[in-house]
Structure formats: structure tokens, C-alpha cells
Amino acid sequence: MPGSAQIISYIAALGLAAAIPGPGMTALVARSVSTGAVAGFAMLAGLILGDLFYLSVSVFGLALIAHSWSSLFTLINWAAALYLAWLAWQFWRTNPQAVDIAQKATKKDLASAWLSGLTITLGNPKTIAFYLAILPLVMSLDNVSLPIWGMVLVPLTVLILFVVGAVFILAALKIRHFLSSAAAQRILFRSAGLIMLLAAVGMVAKTF
């Protein structure tokens, strides 16, 4: 089992990485403002599930195979960058209306929010690069057992991402009244689109 110092290092690294605004957290704030807390937490669930997928892939070594095939890893980066660029375009061209903050999210809104969170994370290979970089600080990937993965890494990852995501959601709700106008919504969505576009450009730049 990993020691307390290793666990604290993992918590600190993951918490800091999650707290730095990126495509996921930016979209989470936009969704929370436009559709409310329930939809925000639905998107957060999707984001966390995507992280757990990449965590599992990293732990059990499949990512090491992809990483050793540089051409495949480059292709993944390009595909993910194109996806993020498409999301950026969707955010930028959105023509939002003023938000009725009293309106509750529908089941369709919740399903859309969850799927968006999942696809944003899965479309970002930087997530798997993070786990490949930080996990060796916690333990040897060659010696990871199923109990360590299921009883230590998964619960810690879920807890950290939930806490950080909840802070973003609650902060968005605090200022939701001020961001509910169509003009504010347009600025928010275009800001999210710009961040996603920059993330896509950065991913492509790393392949050269």
C-alpha cells in the first residue's frame, strides 16, 4: 500500500491540476450558470467518470503501450485536438438567451450535461499524460494490485475531483444572477470556447 506521504503528494497534485481552469472546469461553470446546480453535478459526474477511465488505463499499463507507439499517440492527440476545436466552435457560435434561473433542468439537460462532461475528458489526452506522470510518484505501476486501484486510487480520485468541481459549481451559482443575461452568457460561452481552442492548439503543438 502507498504511504501517507505518497498519498498526500497524489492528493496535492490532482487537486492542483483539477483547480487550474481548463476545458472541463470552464464548461462546468458555463453549464452550471446556464442550467443550474443539478446539471452542473451531472456534468461533474461525467468528468469524473472520464478521469477514472484514464486512471484505470494508466494503472493497468495499456497507456504505456499507446505511449510507446509515438505515431499512435500523435494520432490520438490530433483527434482529440480536433474534437476540442469542434467544441470550441460550438461554444463560440452559441446564441444564448437570457437564463430563467428559476427553471429546473430536464432529464434531457441532465443526460446532455453528463455526456458532455464525459466526452470532454475523454477527448483530452492531457488527462492520461497527467496520470502517467503522477502515478509513478505514488507507486510502481508494475506492482499495482486491484485492491490498491479499487480501495485507494479510485476513491481518492473521485473525492478530490468532486470537491474541486463542487467548489466551481457553487461559485458559479453565487454569480449566476449576474451572468443570466444573454450578453453575459455569450461572453461566458465564448470564453469557454477560447480556452478549449487554446487547449487544442497546445495539444497539436506538443506533437511537433
TrEMBL record:
Domain of life assignment? Bacteria
Keyword Protease appears in the UniProt entry: no
Q: How does it sit in the bilayer? A: Multi-pass membrane protein
Residue stretches spanning the membrane: 6-29, 41-66, 72-92, 113-134, 146-175, 187-205
Q: Where in the cell is it found?
A: Cell membrane
Main localization is membrane
Q: Which UniProt keywords apply?
A: Amino-acid transport, Cell membrane, Membrane, Transmembrane, Transmembrane helix, Transport
Q: What is this protein called?
A: LysE family translocator
Organism field:
Mixta hanseatica
